[in-house]
C-alpha cells in the first residue's frame, strides 16, 4: 500500500476531513490532497512524525519501501549513502516508465536491486582503508 492510500485510510478511520488533517499536521489542504492522490510525499521527516503522532502509529508504517530504503542507507552510511540510495531509486523508477510490468514484478525488481546495493556496500568495506572504517 502506498503512502497516500495509507494516509487516506487513517484519516477516514478517524472520521476527519482533509481540512482538519491539514490543520493538525501543519500543512495546506492542497498538500494533503497531493499526498492522498500520490502526487507528492512529505519532503521532511518531521511531517511523517506529526502524522504518526496524530494517528498514534509507528512512523515506519507510513514509509514506502523506497523511503525506508533511503532512510536505512542514511542511518548506515550517512548523507552520501542516502544520496546514492535516492539516485538508485530514481534511476530504477525510470526503468519502469511506460513498461508493462505488474506492481508485484516492479516490487520484486526493486527489492532485488536494493539487496544488490546492500551487498555491494558490504563488499566494498574490504577496500576501504582501515583509518576510515568505523
From TrEMBL:
<dbReference type="GO" id="GO:0003677">
    <property type="term" value="F:DNA binding"/>
</dbReference>
<protein>
    <submittedName>
        <fullName>DNA-binding XRE family transcriptional regulator</fullName>
    </submittedName>
</protein>
<keyword id="KW-0238">DNA-binding</keyword>
<dbReference type="Pfam" id="PF12844">
    <property type="entry name" value="HTH_19"/>
</dbReference>
<dbReference type="InterPro" id="IPR010982">
    <property type="entry name" value="Lambda_DNA-bd_dom_sf"/>
</dbReference>
<feature type="domain" description="HTH cro/C1-type">
    <location>
        <begin position="7"/>
        <end position="62"/>
    </location>
</feature>
<dbReference type="InterPro" id="IPR001387">
    <property type="entry name" value="Cro/C1-type_HTH"/>
</dbReference>
Amino acid at each position: 500500500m502506498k503512502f497516500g492510500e495509507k494516509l487516506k485510510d487513517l484519516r477516514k478511520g478517524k472520521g476527519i476531513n482533509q481540512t482538519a488533517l491539514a490543520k493538525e499536521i501543519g500543512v495546506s489542504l492542497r498538500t494533503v490532497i497531493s499526498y492522498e492522490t500520490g502526487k507528492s510525499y512529505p519532503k521532511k521527516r518531521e511531517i511523517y512524525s506529526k502524522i504518526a503522532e496524530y494517528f498514534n502509529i509507528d512512523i515506519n508504517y507510513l514509509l514506502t519501501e523506497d523511503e525506508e530504503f533511503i532512510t536505512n542507507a542514511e542511518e548506515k552510511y550517512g548523507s552520501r549513502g542516502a544520496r546514492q540510495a535516492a539516485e538508485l531509486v530514481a534511476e530504477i523508477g525510470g526503468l519502469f516508465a511506460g513498461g508493462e510490468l505488474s506492481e508485484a514484478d516492479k516490487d520484486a525488481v526493486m527489492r532485488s536491486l536494493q539487496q544488490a546495493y546492500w551487498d555491494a556496500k558490504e563488499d566494498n568495506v574490504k577496500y576501504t582503508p582501515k583509518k576510515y572504517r568505523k
